Amino acid sequence: MPFPFVRPATISDTPSGLHNMFICSTTKSEVCENQPLQILIIFHTFAHQFLKLEQNYNCMKIKTSIFLIITILCTHNVMNAESFIDKNMVERTTSALTKKSSLPQHIIERGVSQAAAFWLSSDGSKEEFRQFCEDHQCKTPQEKEKLFYRLCENFESILGHNNRVMIDLLMPTHVSGVESLPIDQYFGSYDGLAHLNDDMFNSKIAFIVILNFPHFTLDEKNRNGSSWSDLEWGYVRLGDLFTSRVPAFQQQKIGKSTADADNYISNYNIYMGLVWSDKNVKYWPLNPALISHWGLRDEIKSSYADKQNGLDKQRIIYNVMKRIVDQSIPEDVINNTEYIWYPSSNQTFIEVNNSYIEFGGKSENNIRYQHLLNIFNSIKATDEYYGEKSNYIDRKFDDEFEISVKETERLFHNLLSSPQVAEVSKLISKRLGRKLEPFDIWYDGFKNRSTMDQTKLDQMVMSKYPTKEAFANDLPRILTDLGFTPERARFICDHITVDASVGAGHAWEAAMRSDKARLRTRIGENGMDYKGYNIGIHEFGHNVEQTISLHNVHNYFLRGVPNTAFTEALAFTFQAKDLELLGIKNEDDKAEYLNTLDAFWGCYEIMGVAMVDIKVWQWMYKHPNATAAQLKNAVVQIAKDVWNQYYAPIFKKEDQTILGVYSHMIDAPLYLSAYPIGHLIDFQMENYLKGKNLGQEVERIFKIGRKSPNVWMKEAIGTELSVQPLLDATSEAVKKASAKK
Description:
With about 750 residues, the chain is an alpha+beta fold. The strands form four sheets. The chain has a four-stranded mixed beta sheet with strand order 2-10-11-9. A three-stranded antiparallel beta sheet has the order 6-7-8, with no helix packed on it. The protein has a two-stranded antiparallel sheet with strand order 1-3.
């Protein structure tokens, strides 16, 4: 039995059987004319893409399953007159196979048609194609199931071991304390799976998969998915695997561009002790070095608790962010401890013999946008292999997120333009005792931690977790406090390894059950501070999902979640309990309402950022020959436009560029929308979990596996994705939070 934790279902276990369902849902015209395909963009290509996936932090949810270790992007097959295998041969082959098989004709025809679309003259003659199909098409449901589980075992080995190789090669650049050498950057961009797609087609393994497990559209998945068994869903997800023959050299170019961008972002630190106010006030010691954008944003958030200097510090950081967006930031102040910088005037000074001499260094000069442009160009170069879906934006949303870009923008617009925005902003202004400023999109005052002294929090956490081992050893206790049984808590934690991170932090999952997920967060020489702990709890949420969805799903091809927004939802749930897990209770009787307001304001901020991300990619497709300077100008203008539409009416200031500061936009192409979607899922999930045992429900929910989002939501919590529950709850929360005691 391939999966020891569950009993594999058989066709007889299902009410009607997968093939009967296919007969009912698929017409002949759909089989012949609507042949969706997906490209296999190999692991390293988007392993780096997900290095910066986070809500409050640089948390990486690297889906190293068949679907996210190799990012799967659905599209449509190109069935045209240029196909080597013509329609007549497809019909002849289908007819011959139908006579020898107990499987329905429709499923056979679909498999033959899709395999024919990929078959080149170099793969063999037309007669050799027909013979290959006769030799390798399964004849019975039992034979098909046996083949399926063998593919599960073999791909788990291939992908799992290659994932582990990538983890090892990236240790010097990801893990603190591992010496980094110049050659590590080259090993970090090495992709052991770069030729997997070519190898699978050349060896004809891909054709066997396509022939027996053809691809189905998102519409078909949503239409029929609720009635499919887990085994049937495994078949369907296997059908998402081989959907394009993109050359390996094109995949390698994507891998290199994303690796270069990741390296750039991972080393983008600002030493705040050298950042002074225009009144020559130094608010920070030499450390901390705040990584952009995560560390800078979190410093703005923590400064709300500093009643004396917090506002001045926030204004300074805001100027730093604007310099990053418009690239006027001096390159000498990035990851450098030599130069004193005044962000307001953009002057830099160097200390020489106890005197300060102005140093007129050059700006960063659009390096930020050159990295984004490099990623765009490398991805766009593969568009020609995608037929009708020759636009990465459509592939990203329709096929990876499985939520269309149109639907995503509609969800975001409905919240951003809602009357609840004005209601909450007035409440924030009242709580602050001042008019809102643009950086208040990161207002953190609804959280209990925002009223606490950051220094005391740091001391508490450092005392509790002086080493990474101390944090790792406490993880089982954290899970039992959240409702997991001691046995399950130990099992999950035994499959997680904690490392001190070079970057802000991330979670990298295992791709085979014999490996462990990686939890990485910043841990200093004096131990883990509060920010590192908060990151760690967020990443731990990812690791818990990663472990459950690897070890407890029905089969390997079903492992994971519908898209990364769903794992972010659990990470948010864990993160929201960070103080509670430290033993700090929130005695505020309005805590529930404040949490709702915090969730709403968080959506308001990140949805605008995601809107900018989408519009930047739309602009790049309209201007494929743009320079980095032109792209920078476009990003600045798009950020202003989105700000003016959704934020200027609230903040009473126009043409702000701050929505363009997120680092994800540079090294994680089009990922930002996962966060607001994750927020919405998180809110609906939190409401569902009220009064229930969190541990038991998390185990049940994340055993569902990677079904389509609509199917997953209905099975997990009984409702579809919507902004309305959050809007309704926000209106009620404003009333309760504003009421006098």
